[in-house]
Amino acid sequence: MSFQIRNKTFEPVELDVTSFMNLMIVLVPVLLLTMTFTQVTVLDIKLPELAGGYSSSGESQPQLEVEITDAGFKVFYPQNTMLSEIPVIETEEGVSYDYAKLSLVLQEVKSQISDVQDILILSAPNTDYQSLVLTMDTVKSYKTTVVASLVEIELFPNISLGDASVKK
Question: Are residues 123 and 64 in the same domain?
């Protein structure tokens, strides 16, 4: 079917999409292969209760605390009684926190006070986000091998956050 506009005749043109289809056949698998798959994980942080517990009875509840400083970790139980000081370790990339040592210290604490579920993480204002999240993962649980399978053992699942500069 042709049509005419001002003495010009136009013939219908057939679209050639072969080159576009070839491009899509190559592009789609390449994009799928280069796409990174991410896993979103949510860490549950408990807020302190407003009423009830030890606070309403006037007694102070012993609190397990991990303080993140530039020099490393400090573990306190009860408040202001330091159990362990874990210095940062030197690596090829620079200095980093010793999460393995922190996990071992907390495993020892958990074996002595098995009924405690709460932990308070105090961080300095200049603590980076990744260090804070890795610390939260470390205090929450640890992995161990039991009967030839890797299992995750719970340490202190009820995590609260605080500012280390307020403590002083």
Answer: yes
47 inside domain: no
pTM for this model (two decimals): 0.64
Q: What is the pLDDT of residues 121-138, one digit of tens each?
A: 998 888 898 999 999 999
Please report which residue ranges of 17-159 form alpha helices under DSSP H: 18-34, 53-57, 99-112, 129-140
The answer to whether the beta carbons of residues 99 and 135 sit under 8 Å apart is yes
Three-class SS of residue 43?
coil
> Is the residue at 40 inside a domain?
no
Number of folded domains in the chain? 2
- Domain that residue 9 falls in: 3-34
Q: Which residues of 106-142 are buried (b: 16+ CB within 10 A; e: fewer)?
A: beebbeeeeebeebbbbbeeebeeeeeebbbebbbbb
Surface-to-core class of residue 69, CB atoms within 10 Å of its CB (0-12 exposed, 13-18 middle, 19+ buried) = middle
**Closest C-alpha to 99, from 125, 63, 75, 80:** 75
Same structural domain, 99 and 144: yes
